[in-house]
């Protein structure tokens, strides 16, 4: 390798190390205390969107933004950086010459540490390593990855309703999602963050928000596109990774949208009711869900559609009415209980209201987790309404650090033809191959037989997933 190539390799490597997050082994993830142990139930605390910036992979305790959980010291700076109160004079690159030669050496002869610890011009490599900490800014990059295989022996019913994101008939390998979370903690006051995902063939921004601390942990302002705090899973940046079974419940698509984010404004916070009990709360206003208008007749009233098709929309083009929602959660002594509500006009033409309600509860000991949730969507249509109902109950037990069996019961009623209703049993096994060294890597397998609303056997379904968080 010639000198020029060596210089490029070293400088690029230096930039990569500058941007890389600090080691989680030495410092718990300030964005997600639960990430170090994915066996812990993600919803043992309230969803981040409800009460805390989603942060890196899974949220911290619901009410506080990243810094409120375990923020890095504003005064702290990376190794080799001189604090702002004692700013060093600019110096040439360290040549490594024991005789102290100040001549600029070949970059290929320098160590990565030497390159990183040089103060340089703003237009060149390395500057952010000095300047961000001096202004109280701590940036981070985290992510999750989920890939797997799905097979189902019989096709789901045809027609307008698709019960699953991926049918599995015919069988298919599937990328459930690669997600990158990028954000910053600015002086423990402002917390910008966004999530980029690649669940499909295109990159997409799932949320992009800015949180501002207003009154300690009691009140925060969130603006931008954020995860809607509805239910026990929707507030989490990657519910597929955090949910115990290899596939999320049927209600998280057909009764309320999954991976649901909206643009608007939110106020949230957390208050300690006692030494053992915490209340978390959120209220928000967003543009809202919208059923896709009839392309052949844009003036026609479109109604009664699938909620999973209503998240990607431009409803603000049709009217200025907004949607409103709220979430409350109480947690303490291993018990977590939450309730959520949401309402607004979902029709581009005419007035058709959609209202969603959800309750959830979870109890967790060292090894055992019990969880239940139910939701209903009341959807207005001409001359009446549709009531879409879903519920599930889940239990898991960490037999040994490497092994956790999971059992789940699902119910879905869509207030339409019974062939779309479902009763589903989920029998799963989660394997953590290296629980001490890599606790955020998990293999999940599940067998999910189902029956339709008339009691007829519907299908056998198998889902296998490899998940990792970093």
Which residue ranges are poorly predicted, with pLDDT under 50 across at least 5 consecutive positions? 1-105, 119-127
Predict the CATH topology of the largest domain.
Answer: Porin
The total of helices stands at 7
Q: How confident is the prediction overall: mean pLDDT?
A: 77
- The level-1 CATH class of the largest domain: Mainly Beta
What is the number of strand segments? 18
Q: How many structural units, i.e. domains?
A: 2
Placed side by side, the strands forming the largest sheet appear as 1-2-3-4-5-6-7-8-9-10-11-12-13-14-15-18
Distance between the termini: 32 Å
Morphology call: globular
* CATH architecture group name of the largest domain: Beta Barrel
Helix content percent band: under 10%
Characterization of this structure:
The protein has 470 residues and is mainly β. The chain has two domains: 3-21 and 76-133, no CATH class; 33-74 and 136-469, Porin, CATH 2.40.160.10. The chain is 10% helix and 39% strand. The chain contains seven helices and 18 strands. A hairpin with a 5-residue loop joins strand 6 and strand 7. The two termini are 32 Å apart. The model is unreliable at 1-105 and 119-127 (pLDDT under 50).
